[in-house]
Design a protein that fits this description.
The structure is a homodimer. By secondary structure, chain A is of the alpha/beta class. Chain A is 35% helix and 16% strand. Chain A folds into two domains: 6-177 and 287-367, Rossmann fold (3-Layer(aba) Sandwich); 181-282, Rna Polymerase Sigma Factor, Chain: A (Orthogonal Bundle). The first copy, chain A, has an eight-stranded mixed beta sheet with strand order 1-4-8-5-9-10-11-12, sandwiched between helices. Chains A and B meet through helix 3, helix 5, helix 6, helix 7 and helix 8 of A and helix 3, helix 5, helix 6, helix 7 and helix 8 of B.
């Protein structure tokens, strides 16, 4: 059966009450669906995206070359089988792919929000999705799946809306962002803020797309270090040098440097700097226990079956952090959770690139 | 007995023939000594410094507050006992603490070299030290000790000058810099080069000391991530936030962010940007096997007793890399080496801050 890829944007005029006490009003949410909703609406799977992801998680747009970011996992006869499930993926608020974010026109001036955009949290992102699903007449779903910041959302769904999802599958994430991850984000934040071309937030988006933004490229380079691992870099690049005659040239380059440069500067062509700052803020302050006395109290709200999947070489959100969630659940007597650690050298990126390492387990969870 | 700290600068007019084929001429080497040289000159210990270190590894200068960078290890009745040993530490060429580097006046114009400074390698740094020691009448030494880039120098001494040192102790380093470490350096390089205040290398040093250099601060932040570890950051900073009322302020700061900012910008007050670029280049192209058919062939040159010390949580130069050296030595039948891995949560920085974890082993090696 075809993927049946559809993209929509829904407009909301009611205020979205944010965790900060501020409101977002009005706002849009862009989302994508695949497969067909069955009659009793029991086949919905929600996919949550990571920091720089979007609602486009599967299939290929007409005229486009690159498939959605989890296309190896989602589709006809794939682990998340669109012949069977109706899959929805929304672009989070604060992002820059259609949902309302810092560069969206602000009501009523139509000028971009820029710094007037409120800080949004993972909880807010999840709340906005819940409101969207309500409008679509979907009041509960079969499963929610996400990795990295998507895994944060999946866990937050489990706590904020205990009766909403039958199964939650959270990959490569944590219960609260640790200083190590905040430190990586800090490099990006500092480099962007101090870049003169960022113009203190008053940049022209087109100028950045055309000329790049050094600070953002540098930040993305730091991001790539945190997404990869020493071993995956060894495998990918070794000590390959672009020009062996030029070893003693001060700016001669190793393959790994070319990779970082390319991906760093390319990033500035397709992602918005203010969205980046707002989303890393959301990640930095992510903490499942906020509003509760303890993590255990937060986790005790969970009614969904919870499945945690970590990757051994992930240096950004370490296996040990996922294991802590599992151990906390054990401690409070939760019987409906599993935790597996996947052997992989690919670091944090494994949840995107080594789908073959965990798709069997994912199918078992979904079919089980 | 007093430390007997003395600082000297030696001037050399003969050309230094560099690995690149270029020459450095004339050049200075600044060095420090502690303790007293015994009559048969058999009590010399050479200390090699890391990327941003200097010849000042022990004691406190008059009017200064901060002691030398390995003061917890070196001194009267310390592991490297200056009552017994005559300790020498030189500032490497390319650095900015007295030895000739890119901001030194170029002969005969007296203008700073800047980019006209030749690329120097770890092998060149070691060669320059060997020439200095010759001038001082020291033709062999009891031991050479270094960590990180200092550990690279110690290993390079063992290979370049097999009869020079009786014992080599190399900590927290590798046999060739891996793409993971090169990637961290790349962040600094890119951020510095593209910083408008760097003025393509034609900056005024005083202006940078006074106003800071964003690119260098950002690079240093990346450096700190690589020197620490997820666990040490947890212990040091946890998720402490500067102002809990301001959690939803876009630029509210976690303790770890303040630490990175402070150390990042402070760094620009005491280290030279061009020296930084030249030294990370030397680290990037460091490879013990260069000029040999293999690492094993290079290691087969070693005659000194070689002692390798790694730190379990070091994410910059991993234990596994040190172990590879040890395994290679086993393979080629070298009987005079030891390898130990120290349990520590402090990451790469452990070689500087957790001296108590390895000083006993160090004393055993030196006394053994």
């Amino acid at each position: 059966m075809p993927l049946n890829l559809k993209t929509y944007t829904e407009h909301f005029t009611n205020p979205l009450y944010l965790e900060s006490g501020r409101i977002l009003e009005p706002y849009d949410i862009t989302y994508e669906t695949y497969g067909e909703l069955n009659e009793d609406k029991s086949n919905v799977i929600v996919i949550c995206h990571a920091l720089t992801g979007s609602h486009h998680c599967a299939g290929v747009y007409e005229g486009d070359k690159k498939a959605g970011w989890w296309d190896n996992l989602i589709g006809s006869n794939k682990a998340v089988d669109t012949n069977k499930y109706f899959v929805i993926c929304t672009n989070v608020i604060g992002s820059c792919f259609g949902s309302t974010g810092p560069m969206s026109p602000r009501h009523p001036s139509h000028e971009p929000y820029r710094y007037k955009f409120p800080v949004v949290t993972i909880k807010d992102m999840v709340k906005a999705q819940r409101i969207l699903f309500d409008r679509l007449g979907i009041h509960s779903v079969y499963a929610i799946i996400g990795g990295s910041m998507g895994g944060m959302q999946a866990l937050q769904f489990a706590i904020s809306y205990p009766n909403f999802a039958k199964k939650i599958i959270s990959l490569a994430t944590t219960y609260a962002t640790q200083p190590w991850a905040i430190a990586f984000n800090k490099i990006a934040q500092e480099a962007i803020l101090k870049d003169p071309d960022f113009k203190n937030g008053y940049y022209e988006p087109q100028a950045i797309k055309e000329n790049g933004l050094v600070g953002m490229a540098v930040g993305r380079m730091a991001g790539f270090i945190s997404f990869l691992s020493p071993d995956s870099m060894m495998k990918k690049f070794d000590r390959e040098y672009r020009n062996t005659d030029g070893l003693y040239e001060l700016f001669g380059k190793y393959q790994v440097e070319l990779f970082l440069e390319y991906n760093g500067y390319n990033f500035t062509k397709w992602f918005d700097p203010l969205s980046y700052l707002y989303i890393i803020k959301a990640i930095n302050i992510y903490d499942l226990s906020r509003g509760f006395d303890s993590l255990n109290e937060a986790l005790s709200k969970i009614k969904s079956d919870l499945h945690l999947i970590s990757f051994k070489s992930d240096i950004l959100f370490r296996s040990s952090e996922m294991m802590e969630i599992s151990e906390s659940l054990d401690k409070i007597g939760n019987k409906n959770h599993t935790y597996i650690e996947i052997e992989s050298d690919y670091g944090h990126d494994a949840f995107l690139v080594e789908v073959d390492k965990f798709e069997k387990q994912l199918v078992e969870i979904l079919e089980g």
